[in-house]
Amino acid sequence: MASPKASAFEYAPAPESRSVVDIAPSYGLFIDGEFTEAADGRVFKSISPSTEEVLSEVAQAGEADVDRAVRAARKAFEKWSALPGSERAKYLFRIARIVQERSRELAVLETLDNGKPIKETRDADLPLVAAHFFYYAGWADKLDHAGFGPSPKPLGVAGQVIPWNFPLLMLAWKIAPALATGNTVVLKPAETTPLSALFFADICRQAGLPRGVVNVLPGYGDTGAAVVAHPDVNKVAFTGSTAVGKEIARTVAGTRKKLTLELGGKGANIVFDDAPVDQAVEGIVTGIFFNQGQVCCAGSRLLVQESIHDELLDSLKRRLSTLRLGDPLDKNTDIGAINSAEQLARITALAEQGEAEGAERWSPACELPSSGYWFAPTLFTNVTQAHTIARDEIFGPVLSVLTFRTPEEAVAKANNTQYGLSAGIWTEKGSRILAVANKLRAGVVWSNTFNKFDPTSPFGGYKESGFGREGGRHGLEAYLDVR
Amino acid sequence: MPTTANAAPALADVTTSDSTLRRFLHGLPGVDAVGLEARAASLGTRSIKTTAKAYAIDLAISMVDLTTLEGADTPGKVRALGAKAVHPDPTDRTTPATAAVCVYPDMVATAKEAVAGSAVKVASVATAFPAGRAPLGVKLADVREAVAAGADEIDMVIDRGAFLAGRYLKVYEEIRAVKEASGAARLKVIFETGELSTYDNIRRASWLGMLAGADFIKTSTGKVAVNATPANTLLMLEAVRDFRAQTGIQVGVKPAGGIRTSKDAIKFLVLVNETVGEDWLDNHWFRFGASSLLNDLLMQRQKLATGRYSGPDYVTVD
């Protein structure tokens, strides 16, 4: 545990028990209500990024498996879509309740497989997963009143590809609205975090969900590409990098598949000189260090009014010195592990580029564990719009600090990015919040807070951050035939 | 209006008039209530176990201002309280003494006798506690009597009416006058945060009190509906941290009222640890104004030592 200043009040280790979760040595694909091996017998390993320990061996879906899963989903679609909404709602409510009942187990599992602190899986991921299922369960019998005309129809089979940063939450964002609207699903979890999706498959069985309604196909990018390209998929939903998003858009171009993409971001967190400073500091920390900064809507660019720059940076540095980095299962850990060696390498390279381009790098005194993938919380000052670290998404615990002089300049700099997913505004002046928010080209604008999520609120991007909305009433549209 | 120099030479000019003081207090950074409460709640999820818990419980015991502030207080009650403060757990002499006993001014002499020969201090509420609704002369006489009777610490209440009416300089000058009347006794300034109601007011009152020379800033009297909360204490900790950064002067913090369990007390210690750090992890700089809290701390201490819970009959009722 890397509490930098040895204090009289050292917190003793408080690890959450691993025994609440029973991880099998191997897992199959989940197709048509059964766990099965891949047709070609291929498997891959899922490891715990905080220790590099192998957690389980997982079947790797190939094209033949994708075809089998899509057929199963197609077959299930007929009956599932014909169910009254109130009947589909019962399954979703049941899933939500089982998620709640098993939330401790799932939180520990997610922390092991992803590397994020148990504090976050316990207090953020799992409650939001359950809330998402509850929310869309409520819509299932009210689709006539959702604003998409009388009895809007589902699309059919949804091919969904999700990322590793919030494995179970992204699954919920995809599966809950798809099922509520009467679609069936073939879901491909990320190769570094397949386990919670497989546990979710078990929950589907526990809830008595009809066979084939949800199919889970672990695998790498080629598996995802096969799901996206399958001719009998009607809807493609993807959350992940902008580069892959563009590839998917090219794949589905010219087909009748409906597409939503939730891609990268370079969120601006704008702090005005009349901001509530202590809360702004907390919001900056939450904005960039929540989930080790591996968040598409992270507030990775801090735009601070020049007149309070030094003062704010002092406060921020003092606060960063209290962050506790270490064992993700320890209930007092604030910063966990980076998800993979590959991601760590990318973060490391971009941070080095920031230094090479002349930005000033700072991290609190922080001892990193000797095994696993770790990156100290880092901030860069003297960053300008011309720096790579101000433009490229780092997807790690790295904050770039820029300054502005006037609200106009703040807006201009905030919008000067290829992305447009999130932004934050910190000021005690209500009129300024409204004026600035109106000018920001970002799908989500938080005021005097950051990284707050709610299933009732639509989420999605402008520009290269993607299109389509997830969450809220708007999130239904992606799964309904309303073209 | 004659004004004395404030406690912080670095900020000498802010108390020269009502308008400069108002401008200064209203120029302090605002407080976002949702964010403040979220931060306090998130620190409340820290899991304090084994060695850390043992440390925290002993520290908390040593920080208790063991309090009785009832119309029914008698010399007998105060003597019993004094004995308990000196030896909180008669079955285990390794238990630390509390920081102080806190009584009404007319009980100071009795309390002094009861804790004689120990390090336990005697704190006295004064200035027409708890309402503070008396003429200044009466308030000052109240303070002088308490000090004359041997009080080591004075817990004064501010004039909330004047504060809410925006008469900051009146509040300031009254604290100055009480500080002077307190002499060598350390002065705790009670804001009655439940009556100030907004977090912005609590931050302003904190700075006002510190400028006027408070040795401690204290949340509440324990006599109104809302007393110490994690959020208002966090805010006051931020205030003493910022005040020291600007002036070099360290001021203590005392949440009072409503803290009844060890679990609560440990949460407050986490706030101290992660907001102002170990410089404040000492009963010279942080106190709990409480009465029933002590017994819960003692029961938890026994549990840690023996591995089992005893019961209310295994701690003294005083």
Summary, kept brief:
The radius of gyration of chain A is 22 Å and the shape is globular. Chain A has 15 helices and 18 strands. Chain A is an alpha/beta fold.
Keywords:
heterodimer; A: 483 residues; alpha/beta; Aldehyde Dehydrogenase, Chain A, domain 1; Aldehyde Dehydrogenase, Chain A, domain 2; 7-stranded mixed beta sheet; 15 helices; 38% helix; 16% strand; globular; disordered N terminus; B: 318 residues; TIM Barrel; 8-stranded parallel beta sheet; 13 helices; 10% strand
Characterise the protein shown here.
- The complex is a heterodimer of chains A (483) and B (318).
- Chain A has 483 residues and is an alpha/beta fold.
- Chain A has 15 helices and 18 strands.
- In chain A, helix 9 (277-289) links the parallel strand 11 (268-271) and strand 12.
- Chain A is globular, with a radius of gyration of 22 Å.
- Chain A starts with 25 loop residues before the first strand and ends in a 6-residue tail after the last helix.
- In chain A, 58% of the residues are buried.
- In chain B, helix 2 crosses helix 11.
- In chain B, strand 1 (64-67), helix 4 and strand 2 form a beta-alpha-beta unit.
- The model of chain B has no long low-confidence stretch (mean pLDDT 96).
- In chain B, strands 7-6-5-4-3-2-1-8 form an 8-stranded parallel β-sheet.
- The chains are: A alpha/beta (483), B alpha/beta (318).
- The interface between A and B is medium-sized, with 25 and 28 residues.
